[in-house]
């Protein structure tokens, strides 16, 4: 394990301020990567396995970690998970000696920003690190800070069928994150039929977002910032064009790149996906920290949720990443017990119950507010706060949860 002190030379270039930690058990690879980068960046340390990499990350706080996947003692995927649990703003690039899609997917699920295959080409490596360094700088300038929030990143919400209260839920969760001092973007990916802007009574910047997606600048932080719509609560919206022809012709890859890049502008990006998750959005689930599958208390919706969750798990998304959420009658204990029995076979269960309150939900829409903002003392708001406690790894008191037990605790406690 090798460590360097941060250089204080007054003539350091702008990129030299980006500090790189190298983690690889092959000294030849480590030296080659260092040789490729040392003219443009500052190499602050080298580690030979994931455990050493974690220790150096804690002491050196590098800007970017370049991490091999296959190493003795501790591999790169486990190390990436631990680093991002401790520092959600960390940037990790993983290296792999074989083109194993499962390993790469696992690394991206863990939170890696990019991956490169060995043997590493100098031009490819420099392009990736320069781009990440630029994105990191833009993010810090826009936020004025370096967020360190457990679970930060992209949270995707999906459902097997429409009309289950998904948008109401997303806006409510976003509002509670705002109340905790976090910056939030809601990305409504339901072209034509998206409701987020309507619920909050704002006019979307359709032409700006369309220009971003149609050009080659869909990862440019400033272009994306101009495409966002501000709500009076502090929430920012990113919506797709409502024109059907334009929406159908959207490039899926550009869309996914744009949404992923939104993480440089906010602590959290909450993605409102169309029912059934159309094919062009599937890859977005790969870069999502969590996939929340939403259902309500109708029998058809419950049946479809089981199939929906099964499809997600069969797609090799780990069960811990797929979190079923339920909107409906909190007293339906028998129905929920049976449903959790089905989900347990898939390695998951209902994470949170959100009580149905259509009257308050409609009133919040009329007021142009998130439901938790409109009715902060409602049972629904308490359910949202209950939901955030384990996800954010905070205390109930921090989330504003009342001392009474949650709905799930009362039912199954």
Can you describe this structure?
The structure is a single chain. This protein has 413 residues and is of the alpha/beta class. The protein is built from 19 helices and 14 strands. Strands 9-10-8-11-7-12-13-14 form an eight-stranded mixed sheet, with helices on both faces. The protein is globular and about 65 Å long. The chain starts with a strand and ends with a helix. The N terminus is likely disordered.
Distance between the termini: 48 Å
Q: Tell me the overall shape.
A: globular
Task: Give the integer mean of the pLDDT values.
Answer: 79
Strand order of the largest sheet: 9-10-8-11-7-12-13-14
Rg, rounded, reads 22 Å
Q: What is the helix content?
A: 40-55%
How are the SSEs placed, and which strands pair?
Blueprint (H helix, E strand, L loop, with lengths): L1 E2 L15 E5 L3 H11 L4 E6 L2 H11 L3 E5 L7 H11 L4 E6 L4 H10 L3 E4 L4 H22 L9 E7 L6 H14 L4 E5 L7 H5 L5 H9 L6 H7 L1 E2 L5 E4 L4 H5 L3 H10 L6 E5 L9 H5 L3 E7 L2 H16 L7 E7 L4 H12 L7 E4 L2 H10 L3 H4 L4 H14 L3 H4 L7 H6 L1
Parallel strand pairs: 2-3, 2-4, 4-5, 5-6, 7-11, 7-12, 8-10, 8-11, 12-13, 13-14
Antiparallel strand pairs: 1-3, 9-10
Helix pairs in contact: 2-3, 3-4, 6-17, 8-9
């Amino acid at each position: 394990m090798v460590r360097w002190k941060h250089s204080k030379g007054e003539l350091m270039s702008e990129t030299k301020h980006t500090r790189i930690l190298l983690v690889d058990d092959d000294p030849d690879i480590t030296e080659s990567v260092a040789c490729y980068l040392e003219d443009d960046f500052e190499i602050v340390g080298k580690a030979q396995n994931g455990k050493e990499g974690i220790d150096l990350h804690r002491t050196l706080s590098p800007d970017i970690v370049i991490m091999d996947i296959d190493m003795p003692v501790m591999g790169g995927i486990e190390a990436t998970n631990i680093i991002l649990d401790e520092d959600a703003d960390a940037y990790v690039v993983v290296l792999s000696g074989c083109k194993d899609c499962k390993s790469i997917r696992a690394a991206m699920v863990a939170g890696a920003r990019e991956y490169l295959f060995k043997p590493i080409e100098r031009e490819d490596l420099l392009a990736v690190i320069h781009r990440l360094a630029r994105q990191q700088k833009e993010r810090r300038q826009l936020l004025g800070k370096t967020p360190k929030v457990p679970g930060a990143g992209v949270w995707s919400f999906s459902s097997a069928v429409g009309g289950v209260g998904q948008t109401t839920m997303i806006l409510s969760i976003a509002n509670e994150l705002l109340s905790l001092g976090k910056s939030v973007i809601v990305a409504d990916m339901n072209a034509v039929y998206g409701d987020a802007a309507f619920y909050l009574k704002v006019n979307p910047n359709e032409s700006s977002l369309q220009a971003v997606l149609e050009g080659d600048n869909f990862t440019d932080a400033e272009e994306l910032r101009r495409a966002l719509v501000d709500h009076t609560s502090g929430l920012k919206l990113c919506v797709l064009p409502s024109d059907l022809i334009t929406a159908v012709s959207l490039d899926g890859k550009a869309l996914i790149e744009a949404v992923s890049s939104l993480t440089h502008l906010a602590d959290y990006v909450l993605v409102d996906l169309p029912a059934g998750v159309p094919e062009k959005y599937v890859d977005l689930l790969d870069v999502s920290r969590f996939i929340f599958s939403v259902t309500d208390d109708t029998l058809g919706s419950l049946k479809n949720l089981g199939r929906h969750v099964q499809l997600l798990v069969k797609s090799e998304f780990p069960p811990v990443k797929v979190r079923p959420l339920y909107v409906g009658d909190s007293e339906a204990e028998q129905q929920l017990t049976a449903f959790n029995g089905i989900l347990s076979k898939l390695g998951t269960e209902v994470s949170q119950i959100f009580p149905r309150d259509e009257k308050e939900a409609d009133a919040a829409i009329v007021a142009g507010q998130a439901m938790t903002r409109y009715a902060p003392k409602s049972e629904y708001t308490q359910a949202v706060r209950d939901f955030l406690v384990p996800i954010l790894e905070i205390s109930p008191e921090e989330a504003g949860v009342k001392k009474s037990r949650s709905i799930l605790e009362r039912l199954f406690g």
